[in-house]
Amino acid sequence: MTPPPVKRRPTIDDVAAAAGVSRGTVSRVLNGGHWVSPDALTAVNAAIRKTGYRVNPHARSLATSRANSVAFLLTESHDRLFEDPNFAVLMRGASKALSVHDISLVLIMAGNEDEQRRATEFITAGHVDGVLLVSSHSSRRGLISEIVAAGIPAIACGVPLGFEKKMGYVAADDYDGAREMVQFLAGLGRTRIATIAGPEDTSGGMRRYEAYVDELGDAFDETLASRGDYSRASGALAMTELLERHPDLDAVFAANDMMAAGALDVLLASGRRVPEDVAVGGFDDAPVATTTTPRLTTMHQPFERISEEMVRLLLQVIDGERPAAIVLPTDLVVRESA
């Protein structure tokens, strides 16, 4: 006699299908119901009863607790993580600020679609209490939309384009800082001031370019502008293009120090003297600014203060307060490049 088939034990996927919600929503319900709407909570609990899903006792024990961890969500490539020291400064500052509250920082990379999908699943499953969103791109709106839609506490570094009213943020004053740098270069008597702007889908790239255009006014010439992706290599490529178009340019403002360093490489290789022939200004006051020859004149961003404020605002949101936004001033640091 053939024994009856063993009935398959219901899974979280079965519950999600029965409830008409995502797997992540079911996981959040099992982990205490954090960031789940009342309707979704009701649907999931009904699906659990319908499918006969047996809740893990360990998951039940988490119902009144927090994960005691926060995600440091970086929407950049792995190469950018290691090339740009600003990320390390922000991460170190955030970790230090969280340690006071006995909260761990978890680095999550989300530079491509697969990483973004995994990041969304991990974050929305309740493994972290909140998110510190770093280097957000408006072209990657899906990831931010998922975080906002799930009601997960999050604070962005820089203005989260398209989500300014829904997510708190801490930003340096990109616009005023960039205008000050262009004013400084013009004050040196430079009249052919070029720019290497940052990515158009980032708040810093957009606002610093707007400041450059506004400060030059009627003297603005779009052929004196090029764009990079904040990497040193992109700065070198942009500088090469600018010199081909305007060999007589006498100053360049790069939207970050890494691109400024790349511009310096090309200028010096072309036989131009810096700053005698071409003055160079950057933005960030990153460690690279003091390692170039000559050292970079730049706008200082208070990265340690930014990370501390991001943590402070995030913990407030986790505790139920409304998201807030802070804009911090930048400071001109004059060195030998201009």
From TrEMBL:
The keyword rRNA processing does not apply. SMART domains: HTH_LACI. Gene3D superfamilies: 3.40.50.2300, lambda repressor-like DNA-binding domains. GO terms for molecular function: DNA-binding transcription factor activity; transcription cis-regulatory region binding. Pfam families: LacI (PF00356), Peripla_BP_3 (PF13377). Residues 10-64 form the HTH lacI-type domain. Keywords: DNA-binding, Transcription, Transcription regulation. PANTHER family: HTH-TYPE TRANSCRIPTIONAL REGULATOR GALS (PTHR30146:SF109), LACI-RELATED TRANSCRIPTIONAL REPRESSOR (PTHR30146). This is LacI family transcriptional regulator. It comes from Cryobacterium arcticum. The lineage of its organism: Bacteria, Bacillati, Actinomycetota, Actinomycetes, Micrococcales.
